[in-house]
Structure formats: C-alpha cells, structure tokens
Amino acid sequence: MINRSKLIILSAITSVVLGVSAFTNAPATLQADGPKNLKVLPKNISHEDLGAVMKGFNAALGVKCNHCHAPKTNGEKGLDFASDANHQKDIARSMMKMTKKINAKYFKHEHEGLIQNITCETCHNGNKEPKTIAVKP
C-alpha cells in the first residue's frame, strides 16, 4: 500500500505539473523502452506522467531539458536521460526529496483529498535559482 503522504505529495506535484503543462513546450522524446535510472519518481511512472512532471520543472524553474540531462556521449545528437553526468540532476532529486519531507512534516491532514502543498513553484517562481534574502541572526 502506498504511503498516504507520498500519495498526497505526488498528487500535489502532478496537479501543479498538469496545470502548467498547457503553457509549456513538449519535452524531448522519452526513451522508447521506458524511463531508466529513476531514483525519486516511481519506477512504474507512465511516459505521459513523466512528461508532465518534466514539463512542470520546465515551467516552475524556467529551464529546458538540458539543464538536468546530459548530452549523449556516443556521437548522437540529443540527451541521455538516464545519465547522471549532469550534477543538476542530483540537485533536482535532492530538492524533490526535501519538498516531500516538508510536505510530510508540515502538511499532514486527516482527511482525504488533494491538498496544495509546497512545490517547486513555491520557491522558484519560474526562475532557475530561487530568490533568497539574507537573514540576520
């Protein structure tokens, strides 16, 4: 059985992604035989759902696929979606885990249903780097 907080978080991310996907360009073609090297997203995610998540990153951070995905190294054009060569991919994974932890800790609800929690857009607001302010101790 899927952990309830995971389901809520995935639902929130999916709803944000689907909401902004209408305003973004289609992502690069996904691998024909299914996604590879998924470490945070569900391993059985559909191509459509994975594409929607990637479009959500595009909208939330204002980046294109090559921000996190490394180019192919075998002389072909395009991106190697399974590669971990681009360190931005690990940063994205860490940010997804952080968001999941925040939502699980601070947005626990006893009732069922979709709850809008913290998402990439919350901090990034369409920018690659989130705006930060200096806080004096």
TrEMBL record:
The keyword DNA-binding does not apply. Keywords: Electron transport, Heme, Iron, Metal-binding, Photosynthesis, Signal, Transport. GO terms for molecular function: electron transfer activity; heme binding; iron ion binding. InterPro entries: Multihaem_cyt_PRC_cyt_su-like (IPR023119), Multihaem_cyt_sf (IPR036280), Photosyn_RC_cyt_c-su (IPR003158). Pfam families: CytoC_RC (PF02276). GO terms for biological process: photosynthesis, light reaction. One of its GO terms (cellular component) is plasma membrane light-harvesting complex. Residues 1-22 form the signal peptide. The reaction center of purple bacteria contains a tightly bound cytochrome molecule which re-reduces the photo oxidized primary electron donor. This is Photosynthetic reaction center cytochrome c subunit.
